[in-house]
Design a protein that fits this description.
12 helices, 3 domains, binds zinc ion, TIM Barrel
Amino acid sequence: MNPILIGIFGRGTFSFFISFIQEVTKPFLQPQIMKKLPHKLYALSVAALLVINLFFSVSLKGQENHTKIEFPDIPGFRTLKCDFHMHSVFSDGSVWPDIRVQEALRHGLDAIAITDHLEYQPKQEDVSSKDMNRSYQLARQAAQGEDLLIINAAEITRSMPPGHANALFLEDANKLKQENVMEAFMEARRQGAFVFWNHPDWTSQKPDGVAEVSDMHLELFSQGLIQGIEIVNGGTYSEEALQIAGEYNLSFICNSDVHGLIDWEYDLARGKHRPVTLVFAKEKSEEALKEGLMEGRTALWFENTLVGKEEFLNPLITSSLTVERQGRSIVQSILLKNQSDVNYILENQSDYNFHNLAAVFTLEAHETKLIQVKTITPLPSFSLQFKVLNAFTAPRSHPEITILVK
Ligand SMILES: [Zn+2]
Ligand SMILES: [Zn+2]
């Protein structure tokens, strides 16, 4: 897609313009209309209109593909792209629940949870329903016939400690409206929920932006009433939360916490993307998703950065790369193909250096890159090692991957 055209028209206007061009030219391609023209003019007009249609169809296709987030599955698991924190008009969000569904479908997500605040409904004078399951029900209706899992959920909204927490896979969100905060968490467990601590670094509740575990949190962790923690919430990333997740064996979580429109908050036209939690599940179902979350099989993707435990990050990265050897020279040409949406920043840790690249280079999303490896002697097979600089397994450590060239 031509970035200048997107810049001028904006994405929505551009789609409209493309559809308009296609609709206007379509009738002229009907033979009964065109036959009335002289033979040569007819042939010329058909050719010109076909070229116009083809150009705009390809442009539109490219645009659609670009908005869908793509990651490969890993051995034994499906990679589900999820957002478990978003709001609608049923609390302090600005959109009806069906918009959350349409956004998720546009971005190729596998599961979403609308998590309206249990204790905060500033729009109740205009949106009078007191049923906290209502946004879930409306999203379910909107997603009917679509391959998108909608999870019933709500946000427990308290002062710190414990702050805010999202409870997923609820049977009845209304029952979590409890005077005593511990009772709300107990009710979530009675319903078999997966609960995670939201934005522990939120400066409205923690002015220094440093996530910190209180006695109440220790109690909630030890009783298994909180099983995960948001390391990424919208535009924030907490290294302290990552540290806490490692220390207390909490699942790593990454969400948008969107209140307005995703497309306005993340500049998709400039190659940006919404934050997502990747859940490695045995299949695409609500049960398998819940099991994956409970067992901590997740990775995070935000701002072109991956965060996760080595056991999931390494297979995710290596599954997204394929290598093809070209010929058998001692300056060995290989083609490294990236099948994910990540622009990988790779640092060479191999025994060999490269003829055409420096020790640090970027392998762009969906790019196939030529790497000329100076093996010095002819080798039947060899391996390359890379440190992935925009991926983290702990606050300051990067995963290292090995690529076997045969
Ligand atoms: Zn919150
Ligand atoms: Zn929220």
